[in-house]
Amino acid sequence: MDKHGIDIRVASGSNGKGRYGVGGIPASALVNPNGEVVWFGHPSSLSSGKVKAALKGAKKPGKGGFLSMNLDAEYGGKLKKAAGNAESGALGKALSGVRKLLADESFTEREQAESLEGEITAYVSLLQSQADGFLEAREVLTAQSIYSALSDNLKGHAEAEAAATALEKMDSDEGLQDELKAAELLTKARDEVQRRGKKKAARKFESIVKKFPDTKAAERAEKFLDAL
User: Fold this and answer.
1) What are the distances in angstroms from CA 141 to CA 82, 104, 181?
2) 30 has which bridge partners?
């Protein structure tokens, strides 16, 4: 992917071959919202009808992007608004709503409220751990976007502290700042490939290697240049 300047998500290092019974490529699997494989075969034989059937009854994704939750349980009554906020990606508002209800001694649906609070905090922890993994792998732009979203969205809650601390670390670490600068330049270089072609964009990749030689972006830029 790096050699050809292609910037799409791939399941690098996965054990999908064994799980899906892949005997050759290309091969595709269609997974429904419940995580069940409902179709497997050559991608050319996958029809729009099969995709529509697999998505039947699925909830539309929330407007909050990766912050939007698919809750395990249904929450009604006074918890409906907080649940709606969680599903739309307003995690801070959702937590505020739930905790306000839990602080009210007259509120009777405590078990459900605690369940919703647990779902939200578990999801925040998951996002935080994913961001930490991206940072460890030097996928700094992705890590930064997750940390920033969590820090801003959860402002005023203890759950925001880990993300805010991680952002402070990134700001104060010269090595990580170089990674960020190089990654931003790599994004621009890939855009240049789409506009002008590989050879005309080569100088931008060469510049990354020269200015930021010890970064993840430089490694990727070198692979791209080697393939020219």
Assistant:
1) 30, 41, 9
2) 39
What confidence tens digit (pLDDT) does each residue in 89-125 have? 999 999 999 999 999 999 999 999 999 999 999 999 9
- Strands 28-31 vs 37-41: parallel, antiparallel or unpaired: antiparallel
Q: What six digits make up the tokens of 160?
A: 């925001």
Q: Between the CA atoms of 139, 181, 8 and 123, what dihedral angle is there, to the nearest 10 degrees?
A: 40
Q: Which residues contact 150 (CB under 8 A, 6 or more apart)?
A: 67, 91, 124, 127, 128, 131, 159, 160, 162, 163
Residue 26: band (very low, low, confident or very high) from pLDDT cuts 50, 70, 90: confident
Contact 215, 227 (CB under 8 A): no
Alpha helices by DSSP H, listed for the chain, are 16-20, 48-55, 80-87, 91-103, 110-136, 140-153, 161-172, 174-196, 198-211, 216-226
| Residues counted in the chain | 228
Q: Which two tokens stand for residue 106?
A: 């007259």
Contact in structure between 110 and 143 (CB atoms under 8 Å) = no
Other Cβ atoms within 10 Å of 87 Cβ, number: 20
pTM value surpassing 0.90: no
In what helix (H) or strand (E) does residue 41 lie, and over which residues does it extend? Answer: strand 37-41
**86 residue type, one letter:** A
